[in-house]
Amino acid sequence: MDLDHEHCVPYPIPDSDYLAGARRSIQENIKTRFLRISVKSLQNDKEFEASHEKSFGLDNPHKYIKDPNAPPDKGKFVLVTIFLFGLVHVLPFAFFMTANEYWMYKFRNVSSESTDANDRTTMQKYFSSLTFLIITTPGLVCTFLAALVGHKIKPETRIFSVLSIHSAIFIFQSIFANINTDEWQGIFFGISLGSALIMSCALSFGSSGSMGLISKLPPNYMKAQLLGEGVAHVFSAALRLLTIFISPSATGSALLYFITGSCLMIGMTIVLFCATKTEFFRYHTRSAKDDTKQQMKNYGDIKDVTMKIWPLLFPTLIDLLIPVGSITALVVSEYYGTDSVWGNTYFVTVCTFLIPALCSLLGRAIFNGFDLDLPVLVIYLLSILRAGTIGILFFFTNAKPRHHLPVLLTHDWEYALLIGLKFFSDGFLMNLTSIKIMKAVPPDRIELAMMISMFCFGGYATLTSPLGVAAVSVL
């Protein structure tokens, strides 16, 4: 799980009823690469599947067709709920990382009143990078287990279990926000890393459940979830600003912040439960029980899907080679340590979290609005260009403590522009790559394709996670 990215994923596994409805309403493929097929020529489901068996791949994406027999989503209740689920789904990590000033306060040097960012303690320097490091390997293991046996557990069970675990962690952190941990900072440091570990494992194992379930709904519901994930970081940053304004103290604002998060998680659990009971939701997910009876994915299935999507599995690795999150967690304002309220109170929340979140959301919105597509080669070129320019420049921002590299981007606006460009391209390319993977395989292989993608991402994150610690040392 990459803390610098908002994650997303899959689409529908059609049964015979869906295929029968699709036969009556099939239209041209989005790139007009499918020939128009006469309804009369499709006599049974096997013939339908056979006619499309070789039509999927990066060069022949498929298009989902609306099921004419589906009941309406009254008041767009399910659509709105899926959007909110996308928001809450990644909110724990967004909340956890956006409260950067809170962690800096909790792990400060209690025996010194120094405001020099170069005097930060070891726990302050390495909290962000160690958080990423400690969650990657267990998260990868959970993703692997989910890929093998996750489908044996009902998707609803997995989703509500994750929401319950995350709600409990929010309540747990709310309690600690009001407790003085100065005398046992090391223990609290371990507790905080442990909380991140539990969140990562739960999210890794439960995400495929939400993928599989939402993938059965029409495609615009998946886009709603992706949009919700993008809004999550904007929401958490805006809420963080509000709590700082209401209660300027580090512990007071964090307490209000985590309590609000707890209420949101619990409320979302109730709303989602109601949405799963609607006629619309039940119609589209009626095959979910049958999915639990499927056999474990065999080597042939995994190999077949991997061969279809492998070109899209590596751009993420290029991006992870630059541990941006570990560096941005240490960036301070050019006015830090002065009497500036902006430099001491608002800079981190606005520039390190709110601006990137807004730019990422803008990138997602442009993709969703124009439904743009790019060749795989162009995606690679953009990934390499970003890492070699934007990624490298983060080493020369005002991240402290530093003892080796010079600060070249000395002004706050320069840092804001740099991080905005980084996350704008993140939002666009992430949605583009995810949708491209979904279109590259048949509908009944989408969840497996996304699981393979997530597993590769977890593997890359595990391999590159030590780079975050190294980057802090290089500064």
UniProtKB/TrEMBL annotation:
One matching Pfam family is: Nucleoside_tran
- Transmembrane regions listed in the UniProt entry: 77-99, 126-147, 159-179, 185-205, 254-276, 312-333, 345-367, 374-395, 415-434, 446-472
The main location class comes to membrane
Localisation per UniProt entry: Membrane
One annotated Gene Ontology cellular component of this protein = plasma membrane
List, in alphabetical order, the Gene Ontology terms for molecular function in this entry: nucleoside transmembrane transporter activity
Keyword set, alphabetical order: Membrane, Transmembrane, Transmembrane helix, Transport
Its membrane topology, per UniProt? Multi-pass membrane protein
Provide the family line: Belongs to the SLC29A/ENT transporter (TC 2.A.57) family.
Q: What name goes with this protein? A: Uncharacterized protein
